[in-house]
């Protein structure tokens, strides 16, 4: 599904990663952990086509060269980023944006009745008032409401590759549980590939299997599964030696 070969990633002529390799196939869950400032969110932004980053290397998704695609073209292919600080967009409602986005993804006309019915059902599952359907995107919303609105967009757009950039940041216990359960339900229904960027296990523990990569200043320091998460949480990032990198390659092997 997604493959990165020999990636050199820069921002303002500063190299963030050197010769980074990543392969993510459909249906796999990948967890990326690391201390603040090592470049976890930079990977997410780069994959979405943030123009502040300069890439050298090959990045393909479904066989297409992502380096030649703008953000909206990547979204049309099924890549979706749910970030920790969703922005507000004045003058555009959630329904308007979703209707246009779905029209661009499909050659079929949008059935307004079915569209509105599904919106209402998703809002109910997210404990989000139906008034949000016709509200401007994230305008006047709390942090928790913004995360729910982003999940609303996810459920309607049905992406095949989801990037979660610290989406549990700033959420209370109840909101975190709701977000985690919604993501698990979506995964069980559609089996997307998921890249989870996080500092803890509040979201990932709802998933039965996943691969964990600990990112350091020079690349991948250690790889593992659930046990590695617990090791990181108990010891902290400082316990891992930057000089003992195991690999500069992300590999997800599920087909």
Blueprint (SSEs and pairs):
Elements: E1 2-11, E2 14-24, E3 29-33, H1 40-48, E4 53-61, E5 64-65, H2 71-76, E6 79-82, E7 89-93, H3 94-105, H4 112-125, E8 136-137, H5 143-157, E9 161-165, H6 173-190, E10 193-197, E11 211-216, E12 219-224, H7 226-235, E13 249-251
Parallel strand pairs: 2-13, 3-10, 3-11, 6-9, 9-10
Antiparallel strand pairs: 1-2, 1-4, 4-5, 7-8, 11-12
Helix pairs in contact: 3-5, 5-6
Helix and strand composition category = alpha/beta
How does the overall form come out from the CA principal axes?
globular
Distance between the termini: 9 Å
- Total helical elements: 7
| Unreliable parts | 244-255
Strand content: 25-35%
How confident overall, as mean pLDDT? 86
Rg value: 18 Å
SSE string, helix = H, strand = E?
EEEHEEHEEHHEHEHEEEHE
Strand order of the largest sheet: 6-9-10-3-11-12
| Main sheet makeup | 6 strands, mixed
How many β-strand stretches?
13
Helix content bin: 25-40%
């Amino acid at each position: 599904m997604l493959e990165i070969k020999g990636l050199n990633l820069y921002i303002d002529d500063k190299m963030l990663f050197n010769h980074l390799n990543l392969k993510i196939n459909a249906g796999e869950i990948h967890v990326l952990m690391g201390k603040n400032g090592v470049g976890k969110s930079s990977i997410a932004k780069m994959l979405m086509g943030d123009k502040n980053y300069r890439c050298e290397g090959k990045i393909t998704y479904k066989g297409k060269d992502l380096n030649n695609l703008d953000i909206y073209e990547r979204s049309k292919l099924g890549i979706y980023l749910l970030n920790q600080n969703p922005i507000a967009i004045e003058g555009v409602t959630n329904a308007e944006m979703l209707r246009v986005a779905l029209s661009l993804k499909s050659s079929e006309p949008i059935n307004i009745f079915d569209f509105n019915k599904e919106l209402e059902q998703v809002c109910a599952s997210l404990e989000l008032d139906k008034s949000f359907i016709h509200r401007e995107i994230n305008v006047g919303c709390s942090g928790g409401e913004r995360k729910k609105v982003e999940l609303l967009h996810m459920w309607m757009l049905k992406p095949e590759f989801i990037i979660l950039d610290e989406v549990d940041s700033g959420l209370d216990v109840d909101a975190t549980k709701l977000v985690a359960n919604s993501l698990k339900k979506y995964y069980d229904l559609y089996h997307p590939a998921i890249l989870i960027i996080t500092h803890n296990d509040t979201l990932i523990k709802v998933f039965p299997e996943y691969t964990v990569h600990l990112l350091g200043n020079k690349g991948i320091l250690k790889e593992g599964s659930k046990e590695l998460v617990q090791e990181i949480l108990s010891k902290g990032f400082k316990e891992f030696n930057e000089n003992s990198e195991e690999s500069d390659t992300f590999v997800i092997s599920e087909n």
